[in-house]
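Hello again,

I reread your note about wanting to compare the complex against the isolated chains. To keep things tidy I'm splitting this into two emails, and this first one only covers the full assembly. Below are the input lines as submitted, including protein chains and any nucleic acid or small-molecule components. They are followed by the predicted structure of everything together. The single-chain runs will come separately.
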Amino acid sequence: MRNPLASPPPYLPKLRVGVVAVVIAACLGLLIARLWVLQVIEGQTYANRLRNQTTIALRLDGARGPILDRNGIALAENRATYEIDLYLDQLVRDYPKRHRGRVPRIQVERRMGGATLLRKEPDIYRVVMTDLIPIANALHLEVKLDPKDLQRHYFTSPTVPFRFASDLSYVTVARFAEQNLGVPGIDVAVRPVRHYNFGAFASHILGYVGPPGDKERLGPDGYDLETMGRIGVERLMDGQLQGKPGGRILRVNYRGYIVAEEGYTSPNLGASVYLTLDARIQAIVQEALRTVGRGAAIVMDPNTGDILSMASVPDFDPNGFVPKISQEDWKHLTSDPTRPLVNRSVSPYSPGSTFKVLVSLAALKYGAITPQMQIFSPAAIDIGGHLFHDWTKTGRGNITLDEALQYSCNTFFYQVGIRTGIKHLDEMAELCGFGQPTGLSYLGESPGILPGPAWMRVEHPRERWTTAHTANLSIGQGFLEVTPLQMALLMGAVANGGTLLYPRLIVGVSDSQGHQLASIPPRPRADLGLRPQDLNAIRKGLLAVVESGTGHSVAIPGIAIAGKTGSAQAKRRWNGKLYNDTRAWFIGFAPYEHPKYVVCVMVEGGIGGGATAGPIVHKIMEGILALERDGSAPQLVYFNPAQGNFNGLTEIQPKVDTPPTVRPPTPVHQEEGPRDNSSSDEG
Amino acid sequence: MVEKERLGFLTKLARFDWSLLVVAIALSVFGIVVVYSATYSSESQDFRNAAFSQTIWLLTGTAVFFGLSFIDYRNWVKWGWLFFLLSLPALFLVLGVGQTVNGAKSWLRIGPISLEPADLTKVGFVLFGAWWLVRTKSRGFVFAAPLVAAMALPTLLILKQPALGSAGVFLPLCFGILFVGGLRMRYVFLGVLCLLGVLVYAYWGVGKLGWDIPGLKPYQMNRIRTFFDPTLDPLGAGWTINQSLIAIGSGGMSGKGYLKGTQNMLGFLPKNISYTDFIFSVVGEEWGFLGGAAVIAGECVLLLLCLRIAFAAREPAGRAIAVGIATILFTHVFVNVGMTIKVVPITGIPLPFISYGGTFLISCLAGLGLVESVWIHRKPEETNLGGA
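Full-complex prediction:
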């Protein structure tokens, strides 16, 4: 070669260049192959991961549907409340611009993938405070924020607003708007919050709402619930009342800042629940009942079983549970010895003489007596070696059933009960639903106790059922326990001609546009199977009770009211002393010919059925009559909770000696709690 | 020693290989287009001007390319050792007064111009290698030892910055020059063996058994660890590779369309690297497999054109220059694209002609200018191999 430097080399340079070319082409081919795998084969996986990290779904809570009375008056609905929300990401983003400085940072420990890392994050507490303090000062709001809470919220969900203050007054909101205090990132937001329009009004029926517990957070759609129904209708109908949540799909950037909205579904109002309650009658009843310290009252339509009113004293204001009941309030409610949370309308009590209605039904049905049959009823009779007294000293002589009912003659019913036999008494009572729930279990109802030989074997295996027990049962004493609701239903059957109904509290459900979604028809439970003339005899007796018998205090000129009084003696241990805590009853219906209302009133700590329950029924019936006559009803106002008390208790002086001829000792049953009460008989 | 034959300007123009320039400019123009996409949505004005600046750099670089093409490369080879030595003080200097970018002190600021001395050293090393190749008759130890020693010095200096990616370019570069320069096969095998050893060490030792690599900074070690397991620190070192994989993977076959890459727009790909080191992620997301493969293919064509010139070179020095420049470009392409698709660990080096960066674009075009010069000044009788 001409060039000395280019002397023939001892190798093949072109081959080596070729090798380099092959290596390079191979390596780049490898890259393309990898690119194929990544983009074409696994592309969908990465597309999904991209979607996951660039979009967030926000749930918009649906507003809870209202609960209305039978005429459409809203008892519970959602009220708009105002709150101040902090949008943390926006505050951080705008900080440098607004305050001409760098965002303050703070060292934070974060656990990630098992390792704890130290990260620098915006000091969200300082950022928030810089903007919030002037606003809070202007609104006279106290700022109580936990820096750790804020930092965690900012890290986990920067796009979800942080609630700073809730339930602001209109004044505060107005001042906020007027003085234009808002800065981007601090806003007033409207939130629907449950509100019970009339306060402590049918509160035992409506129930209340509260924040869900940790284990019940998830709704049917798998998302967090805002509130859920706790007891009563709120709980039973929770699924219908819950609004269907809407949602927003937001596109976010790498910092989680929202850059666009991709989709929006508006949240829906939940369904409306219509109750059988008539708010006007409920107001009349509550007004009448709150004069006593403890009691229950029910007004029912005997033709449908519709509960027109159901009240229990003392009661509570369910608004106190929204948004969350305070610890003191809860303690106060649960430790009050008068037990305001208990719905007395469905709690078990000794029925006393009101139970004679059932005994009459059984005796007539099974032919133990006829309406015309006269039975000699002295001041006392001997049963199984024990003397059973009437509540009068003289006795009544030869009387028929209607007279016996009119004067509530005990000695008559001892004999009738024994003649009918415990088997038939129990059969009839069972038919009328005693000892069983009525179907309103969501009100926390008790089934009561219907004693009998079989019951005795189970509950008191050492005792045996005797005729004395039967006699006791015949005047509604002893082990027997019934709820006011059961008594109202019994009276309903007498009023409507012999059909026992299931109580109806919910009429139906409609969606927010008013289209009916479901309706619940009245439901008969049983036919009592009585001959009309037999039933009429009982009704006549009941009419006489009010006209000229024990229940005369109920009577209202111009309307025929029938009913039965009852006074069940019960004992209560209170502050270490034993007291008489008489349950005063009245159950009745009106008008006599075409009954439209069944009323049941039970007062704890009363004097007697006629004296204590009667005037309340009188007041209720007057109110209802006025309502029927000219539509005048008490104004529906905000009801403050009716306070409970122990008025009406009379102390029992401890007896030294016991007469040898008393009836078998009345059972003493232990209610839960510190009280100790027993019941004995009275007319 | 180098015999010069004087070629007239017109002769040179006639011998000019346009294909090299056309491919390089095509890639660069595409690069500007992608740089615009990577930066247009950014708030920062610095980023927004990137596409425009890059255009200026491309024009400047093209001028440099032409300038170097028409100057006989042997003029440079004669003084190869000097260029190399001159580039070393700059490496020392940058350790002292350099600007820190993305954690590495690798930029030198001279008035309005910032440059990365490492880029100059790479070209300097190519010229040094070509010079030594011509100087020594040995193709054994005497040939290899000085080159390996000369490679080690800048490698260590650059590692000190620390710029792992840039330092890593010297090893294949040195090996490429030695191999094509005619190193005896036993040394070649020794080199390949060492390379395999390093690979096994990296994969088994570092990847599987969790050994530390001596001399590496913790953050570099972290990058390497997250290469083997990106879930180790999803918000820290693993963030970039995860986001890059999501960007490219979600691009699919044909991409999301120009200016529609959400990973880049929404900032999941960090804005400060999406138009430089991670430009390929933007390509993959917006242009899909077709676009990404086209870029790799384009770079491949360019490299093969360089190797064709090495093939046609009239003497070893020219061949060494062409292969050396090709090796530098190849290493950049492989490491850069490879790190975005998790073939190699993340190291901060740019993608030739596509990534934003003035000095790097000019350096690449200058390197190609040298290669073009090798073509123009090749032996006349070998023109039949193709080209102009």
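For quick reference: The mean pLDDT of chain B is 86.

B.
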